[in-house]
Amino acid sequence: MPIPGQIDPVPVPRAATRREDGRVDLVGLGKPAIAAALIEAGLEPKQAKLRAKQIWHQIYNRGATDFAAMSDIAKPQRAWLAERFLIGRPEVVVQQVSTDGTRKWLLKTADGHDFEMVFIPDADRGTLCVSSQVGCTLNCRFCHTGTMRLVRNLEAGEIVGQVMLARDALGEWPSQPEGRMLSNIVMMGMGEPLYNFENVRDALKIVMDGDGLGLSRRRITLSTSGVVPMMGRAGDEIGVNLAVSLHAVTKAVRDEIVPLNRKYGIEELLAACAAYPGANNARRITFEYVMLKDKNDSDEDARELVRLIRKYKLPAKVNLIPFNPWPGAPYECSDEERVRRFSEIVFEAGISAPVRRPRGRDIMAACGQLKSAAEKKSRAELDRIAEEKQAALA
Ligand code: SAH
Ligand code: SF4
Questions:
Q1: Distance from residue 245's CA to the centre of ligand 1 (Å)
Q2: Which residues have a catalytic role annotated?
Q3: Ligand number with the minimum distance to the CA of 246
Q4: Cβ density class 78-116: b for 16+ within 10 Å, e for less
Q5: For residue range 151-190, what is the model confidence (pLDDT) as tens digits?
Q6: How many C-beta neighbours within 10 Å does residue 288 have?
Q7: 1 has pLDDT over 50
Q8: Is the CB of residue 367 below 6 angstroms from any atom belonging to ligand 1?
Q9: Domains of the chain
Q10: Which candidate, 73, 67, 124, places its Cα nearest to that of 101?
Q11: Which of 193, 219, 250, 287 is the most buried (most CB within 10 A)?
Q12: Is the CB of 138 under 6 A from ligand 2?
């Protein structure tokens, strides 16, 4: 049965995107692709290779956005480059800072689609929450992004561009291995990263490159709602930490709140987790569990969660997420006491189950909320989209 979204097991190289003025944006291209673009523009292969190396370093290590600043390249050639290429960033539509320090950006692609990015600072580190798609094909019932149509996948350059924009905003160039506020990345913004596999992989490769943005793969987490056929490849080809949006332990409840479960069930999903390359006690899989009042939050649910994790011998931790309500949402967040009890049962079984602290509520920092506020879709429109998606999945 075909499902919406893109499951494309064949890696497709990304073609360089030309802007309206004909220039090519180099952000998102690997070193060989930059060299190929330079050759196409007329440079000798040997020189192109050398320049690609310099330009790569300037873009991803120094954070250069202008060829004029590249002092290791001869002046006339800088001008020649600027006529043909650019080093872009997503356009900022709105930037907000919460009273708790959380920053949120509503961004725009060059072709005019809005998407979101959030930075959550802690005492001496911080996590950037990056989007992989504009909208989402899936329709998790508690998720605001799920009420939006998928507009398109983000390109590798638009994904890595989010990280670069955050570095700009935090003043954290050049790239260095330690001591930065932007220390961690989670692919937990808008969209399902495993339905945009190639672009997410290519972007994260640049983020992880020691001479690129230089973030260790141990500091990057990819969150999936459970696209089972792509999980092995994610482990092999990207190798970052895995988070799985489990959210329920029975078929009936998970079918309802994460409709992808009708295609890839809980047992299949947990078997894929057990086979995830690199999962061990030092690198545990995170199970995300959104706390929905009277839906998935009973003692029995907590015990079943423990049983399942044990059955598959998973090196796991559980992240309990208080449901972040949005206008018209069909659920409520579990009471504090219920969340505490759920957490205790899992902890007592020897599995870490911290409760995630809500951040940035005053600026609607939860996934999909700022974009929605900007668009103000009617309730009827949201229902119609939800129904269409459900029908496509049935
Ligand atoms: N599509 C991927 C990654 C993006 S969603 C996935 O589903 O895993 C990132 C996390 O935020 C997921 O665990 C998702 O279930 C959770 N989430 C979405 N909407 C939420 C809400 N309103 N309240 C709390 N968590 C939410
Ligand atoms: Fe998409 Fe993730 Fe939201 Fe589900 S929770 S609708 S997969 S973004």
A1: 7
A2: 116, 367
A3: 1
A4: bebbeebbbbbbbeeeeebebeeebbbbbbbbeeebbbb
A5: 899 999 999 999 999 999 999 999 887 788 999 999 999 9
A6: 18
A7: no
A8: yes
A9: 24-86 (1.10.150.530), 91-379 (3.20.20.70)
A10: 124
A11: 193
A12: yes
